[in-house]
Structures are given as C-alpha cells and as structure tokens.
Amino acid sequence: MTARxxxxxxxxxxxxxCADGTSLFDAGAQVxxxxxxxxxxxxxxxxxxxxxxxxxxxxxxxxDEERKHxxxxxxxxxxxLACRARVSGDVTFEVxxxxxx
Length: 101
Prior knowledge:
The protein is of the alpha+beta class. It is built from 3 helices and 5 strands; from the N terminus they run ββαβααββ.
C-alpha cells in the first residue's frame, strides 16, 4: 500500500507518495521539507519535531524515544518525532522549528 504525506508550509504544501512503514522524516527528505536533525533519523537528537495536523490514526503508536524527548503531552501538542512516526495511510503535518534564543 502507499500513503500520501503532505507537509504544510508557508510557501504552500508539499506532497509525496510513500510506502506504508516509511517514517515522516524519510518522506520529508524526499521533497526537501527541511526537517531539523543532527542524528539523521536515529531517534537520538529530538530535533525532527513535526505537528500532526491530520491522519494521526495512520501513524504507529508513540515510542519510547518520543517520550524521552517530548514527554507525555502528545494529546495536547500533537507533536511527534518525524524519525519515529511511521505511516500506514495519509498524514498531514507541519515542521516544528526550534525557538531561536
């Protein structure tokens, strides 16, 4: 099966078709969505934050790495780590940028 992943941006949405099981990080990389990372998708840096706008039910369950970096507030923030969130259907998200100090 394939899924459509849509990344909402100020410049307009980007969409990519990908296989079920693809991470949002890898889907975003296919269209140069500019998802932050320093560990390149290994789940150790916690920088690849994305806010799920639609299709949360088409993602795998919240992971231990996500709890470590993001806490247990997904139900409030809808923020996941792109490298840990894997699709099983259509998903729409936006990239969460780190606040500048």
